[in-house]
Design goal:
Elements lengths: L8 E5 L3 H12 L3 E6 L10 E4 L1 H9 L3 H7 L1 E3 L1 E5 L5 E6 L11 E5 H14 L3 E4 L3 E7 L2 E6 L4 E4 L1 E4 L6 H5 L7 E13 L7 E5 L4 E6 L4 E9 L8 H12 L6 H10 L3 E10 L5 E2 L2 E3 L5 E2 L7 H18 L3 H31 L3 H16 L3
Parallel strand pairs: 1-2, 1-12, 2-8, 5-14, 12-19
Antiparallel strand pairs: 3-7, 4-7, 5-6, 9-10, 10-11, 13-16, 13-17, 14-15, 15-16, 17-20, 18-19
């Protein structure tokens, strides 16, 4: 148990995947947890994501995997389709939570957020919407945290879980470069085609595309646009332009394209990665999730790393007598795993730029084998 003057009290910055998972895990272990979330709304935006096997394994330890499977779409493999529209490789993924449950699941991001938010609150965590942390000062075993409403908390632990552009990371004096990789990724919410029972990835002559089921009735189309500068397009242009880019793909993408035309939910974002090379912690303060390590989406591993972070953080804090020792153990346990996945995702980006799609398949397979190992 922790033996600091602040008791087992924690302030988490950010109510995203990493922050809510950490809140649920810590509160479940007896911590008094508050979350400061700058967004004033309890709802979250976004289309969908993939809960890979390691994410389901961590969620199962929190008692939440079955909730996610009930509202998401269970899958067991990835089909890679070559530029001619023919299947090039099928990757079967290990079932990490039992032979009768799927290897991974697609899920709508708002659904996952609702499940995690409810779990955190049911365990006693308090979420403050429309607040963020503006100043941090550590004195001995206490962290003095000033919030944007002028109030101050004294806690034993501060967790920065506020994403790749983390303000908490900056307040702690931790520096991470954000790298743009010459790709813009598109996502469009569409009805799920009946044949889409797993992830499909389509190699194109210039770009790559894919489809991920997220429920019995819905899926999201993704497209990675190669060799482009970062830019913002008018919302009215998104669906028509995505439809035009997809015209270059043969095979089943031809069935997807009309679905995109009718979609009212299309987004386009830059592919950014980050890895915090130096310390992830300062005293009793630490950053987790995308604030510490943000892979490119090609490995579908960002959510898994964030969920694992929250669970492992609570585990290591429970094993050590002081918060500082627990944080050091957390970083040692997580650093290499997260670094390898970020580096693997960047290598896949490079192969996509070079149009060497088949060479990316073994990297994807190796990344999933690494993640299948215990966190």
């Amino acid at each position: 148990m922790n033996s600091c003057r602040g008791g087992r009290t924690a302030m988490i910055v950010g109510a995203g995947i990493a922050g809510l998972t950490a809140a649920a895990a810590l509160a479940g272990a007896g911590w008094q947890v508050e979350i400061a979330e700058v967004d004033p709304s309890t709802a979250t935006s976004g289309w969908g994501l993939c809960l890979a096997g390691p994410a389901l394994r961590a969620l199962a330890e929190l008692g939440l995997a079955d909730d996610c499977l009930a509202e998401g779409y269970g899958m067991n493999g990835i089909t890679h389709v070559d530029v001619d529209g023919e299947p090039a490789r099928r990757i079967r993924l290990p079932r990490l939570i039992g032979a009768r449950r799927p290897a991974m699941a697609g899920i709508a991001r708002p659904v996952l957020h609702r499940i995690l938010h409810a779990a955190a609150e049911q365990r006693g965590a308090v979420v403050h919407q429309g607040l963020t942390v503006t100043a941090v000062d550590q004195e001995g075993e206490l962290v003095h945290v000033q919030l944007s409403d002028g109030t101050v908390r004294q806690v034993a632990l501060l967790v920065g879980a506020d994403g790749i552009r983390s303000s908490a990371r900056s307040l702690l004096g931790l520096e991470a470069s954000l790298d743009y990789h010459g790709q813009m990724v598109w996502r469009a919410l569409v009805p799920r085609p009946r044949w889409a029972t797993g992830i499909h990835r389509f190699a194109g002559k210039t770009d790559t595309a894919g489809l991920v089921p997220i429920s019995a009735g819905q899926a999201y189309v993704f497209l990675t646009e190669n060799g482009v500068e970062q830019s913002v397009l008018p919302e009215a242009e998104l669906a028509p332009r995505l439809r035009r880019i997809l015209e270059a793909f043969p095979g089943r993408v031809e069935e997807i394209r009309p679905l995109v035309s009718a979609s009212e939910s299309v987004v386009r974002r830059p592919v950014l990665t980050a890895f915090l090379e130096g310390a992830w912690n300062r005293g009793n303060c630490v950053v987790i999730g995308d604030a510490a390590h943000a892979p490119a989406p090609q490995m579908a591993g960002g959510a898994a790393l964030a969920i694992e972070d929250g669970l492992v953080l609570a585990e290591e804090l429970g094993r050590h007598r002081s918060v500082g020792a627990g944080l050091e153990a957390f970083v040692r346990r997580r650093r290499q795993r997260c670094r390898t996945l970020v580096e693997t995702s960047v290598a896949i980006v490079g192969l996509e730029h070079a149009r060497r799609h088949r060479e990316a398949h073994p990297l994807t397979d190796a990344g999933h084998r690494l993640m299948a190992e215990p966190a």
